[in-house]
Design a protein that fits this description.
single chain, 219 residues, mainly alpha, 2 domains, 10 helices, 55% helix, 2% strand, globular, disordered C terminus
């Protein structure tokens, strides 16, 4: 229990991601463990991240169903599981992933994925948009894409509007982690939809103009 009487299931996806990245190196480069071991650990840790049956408290079970950074690498992980012949683990993780996406898509009409423990948050709608995009749920992804466009100027600006802690009220937080997630999610949506005009306001000028002019006049 790393945080008083609980642990954060979200933390496991970062560990799993590191193991997965290490598994992509050749064994000649790795000094501590083999690529196969790192990949096996990545799949085990990731399963712990998304599988509610592996946890014995309600908070942890609920957090397994939350989207997170793993939309950045789950496709590669599932592909590697197939290639390694780990059929049981593939079916287990793939089944959980399908159920999560179906739920997020069904709830997108209410923008449920935009709300995290910190109210209205790009930590919610960024992963929601990215995950829905790579799963081919284009219409649902576009809903969250509009929120990403509105959020592109500030990352986590909700903290200044609804500060939980005193330092959050002092200034807007340009948060590199979730700013990066927002950028990655926008790329995923573009790759899924292939239409830049979906995210560009009709009133933007077509002729080249200074970037400062766009921000001042249009954003």
């Amino acid at each position: 229990m790393l945080y008083g009487d609980f642990y954060r299931v979200m933390d496991f996806e970062y560990i799993g991601h590191v193991f997965f990245l290490l598994s992509q190196f050749d064994d000649e480069i790795l000094m501590e463990n083999s690529a196969h071991n790192y990949f096996r650990w990545a799949s085990e840790v990731f399963n712990l991240r998304v599988n509610p049956e592996l946890h014995d408290n309600q908070r942890a079970k609920e957090e397994t169903q939350m989207l997170g950074l793993f939309f950045l690498y789950i496709d590669d992980l599932l592909k590697s599981l197939k290639e390694e012949g780990l059929t049981r683990r593939y079916e287990q993780i793939s089944g959980i992933w399908n159920r999560i996406i179906d739920r997020v898509a069904d709830e997108s009409i209410h923008y449920s994925g935009a709300v995290t423990e910190h109210f209205y948050d790009n930590a919610g709608f960024g992963p929601s948009a990215g995950a829905l995009s790579i799963f081919g749920r284009k219409e649902e992804a576009k809903r969250y894409g509009e929120l990403l466009l509105a959020n592109i100027g500030y990352s986590n600006d909700f903290r200044a509007q609804n500060p939980d802690r005193w330092w959050e009220a002092l200034s807007y937080m340009i948060h590199s982690l979730w700013g990066g997630v927002s950028a990655a999610a926008m790329l995923k949506i573009y790759e899924a939809i292939h239409k830049t005009e979906v995210f560009l306001p009709d009133s933007l000028p077509t002729a080249p103009v200074p970037l400062t002019g766009i921000w001042e006049k249009k954003w």
